[in-house]
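Researcher: Structure for this, please.
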Amino acid sequence: MEIKKIITAVAAVAAMVMFPSVSLAQELYDDDYDWHEIEDFPVRRSNGIMIMGTGSEMRYMSCYGGCADKGEAYAQTANTYKRTFGKNVNVYLMPIPLAVEFYCPPSAYEWSKEQLPVMMHMFDCLEDVKAVDIYPTLSEHCDERIYSRTDHHWLPLGAYYAAEKFARVAKVPFKKLNNYDAYVVHDFVGTMAKFSGDNAIRRYPEDFVYYVPRGVNFTTTYINYTLDGARKNITGESEPMVRDFFMKYKDGSAAAYSTFMGGDAKIVKVETSTRNHRRLMILKDSFGNALPGYLFYSFEEIHVIDCRYFNRNMIDYVRNNKITDILFANNMGHASNHATWEMYLKYLEQ
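Model: Predicted structure, token format:
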């Protein structure tokens, strides 16, 4: 993959400037890390999280361990949805690459499997489901701030480029970024400090920039779930309540990614002023939370359902809400996890 080679070559050159010797880098960190190097470029791991670079260029990344067979099961689940709902409902599959696919140094390839071959196999397995291939789009923009350095999620700009590609495939209207107002949460350090157990990243926060659409009205209704202590089982739910789609967080908040709908354990319905008889349901993990805000110009309703939390019958829900389009939007970690597609299949029968 030539794009990946170019990206990692640039990263290697930058790293040689930042760390002129492995010994110098190791002096800055504890000894209980695994180390790889590329021409004196150190890459380390902590609690399974890959850490590269230093200073304001330090990047923490989740590794990927999926395979083609697991990707095929995800694609077949989308095929099952298409067969279930038939010709009146469009079904789309949009697997979302993890950051490590674009920023992994060559010396650490053995720590994380390539995601592109698995994605391509997913697309090859689709029947009447429409593939939304965002890999080339994200590759083209990987020198922009499309993935967080300090959090396991992508950033809102990455979701914007993905939503644009989806809208093109779905043949719905889409507005460019100059139709949005940008807001910033400064000094953001996300989940990776906790996941890695490495606090070095706290010294180098980043800006979390999100975008709110102008010129379109939208009302967001939530049904919030109550979960058990393990946060795996639904034990109750709220009455429907109208709240903001975009939550506000103070500078320095580690929860800035929850700007979108405030999290995952809920059913969300967004009614917009767009009138085109198109109603979208997004089946997602937390990566998908950043997508709906770019599609208010595109659909008159958007329903958001998390792959882990849903206590209704999916067939009844789709028909009762007159859903016309279903988008599977899971990051590659979830897309390659049997629990994800097992839950989606369960929702058709429960």
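Researcher: Any notable elements?
Model: The two ends are 43 Å apart (CA to CA). Residues 68-85 form the longest helix (18 residues).
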